[in-house]
Design brief:
Layout (H helix, E strand, L loop, with lengths): L1 H9 L25 H25 L25 H11 L12
Length: 108
Amino acid sequence: AMPEARLAREAELCYATVAAVTDYDVWHESEADVSVDVVVGHLRANVEAAGDLLRAVCAAGLPDRSCGCDDALRGAIMTDPRLIPDDLRQRLELIAGRYLTTGDEAGE
């Protein structure tokens, strides 16, 4: 989940991973050898549980953010915005635009 977590952070999004186990055969000594039927059965149950979780989160709504995700990029861009070419600034606008203002935009 590392690429997703890093991309979410760069986009200043809160991020959580939901992981689901399909079998224990590789490490849990008291479990029997795995079979395709067991894995598929657990996979189906996991899909149903994930759907239940998603429906519950959607119904409850998201809580107010109390984390630092909403301005995670504030100190990440060290280049003086005046030195960033306009074409690059335009490409970064969606994610980092609020940190790339030079003061010229406000008529300064």
